[in-house]
Amino acid sequence: MKTVHTIAELRAVLAPKRAGGVAMVPTMGALHDGHLSLVRMAETPTVVVSIFVNPTQFAPHEDFDAYPRDLDRDLKTLAMTGADIIVFAPSAREMYPDGFATTLTVGGPSAGLETYFRPHFFAGVATVVAKLLLAALPDTAIFGQKDYQQLLVVTRLAADLGLPTQIIGAPIAREADGLAMSSRNAYLDPHERAVAGNLNKVLREAIARARQTGDLREAEAYGAATLKAVGFDSVDYVAIRDAQTLAVIAALAQPARVLAAAKIGKTRLIDNLAF
Questions:
Q1: Burial (CB count <10 Å: 0-12, 13-18, 19+), residue 41
Q2: Residue 149 is part of which domain span?
């Protein structure tokens, strides 16, 4: 495993490996088993794992300064995979040098849901992902489906810009009680962690209700009310959407996804399920 900190170093290290194929797993560090599952999905001999806490996707009131950072721990975690991994751990100055003045905006799947609550988020994500993909030019890039709206935005970005990278969505890695693995789960105290385990269960109940009644708006309302009843402090949304476009749908006539964002204590959790 080799660690590099500049785009020039990354390209130099990758040059002799390209013939065998290169995959990329973009992360913000604080790695856990969910991240390792993405690395293990790679079908190429070489995997680039980027570790970069991207400042442009955090609003001033969000947890950028508190976001967990421990590169040494992350390197030890990655070593457990036994894969041929190149770790790209750039500085903020490397990614956003003096005079940086470009921001990417992706329409389509970025509309609504997260955008209502984090209007800055997807421009920051799109910009940094484009830079990472252009730096590494991987054959494939693997993103977890937990951030489902983000996955659709990145897929649209790569297609629209003609990037030579196939975007792959990986199944959500979950804890024993079904809670989606996330670096932010480390913020939860024992009581909050117990409540958080209900998130995926309530989404399953909302799916069952939608199938039983056919009333998608009522199922959404039921899901939001139930999350509050089991102990979440606030619910940003429970939404049933078209699985490909995230457009609002009136009936289950096509593949759908139920998505949710809810907060307990200081921690905001997201999750989604297909049906």
A1: middle
A2: 2-170
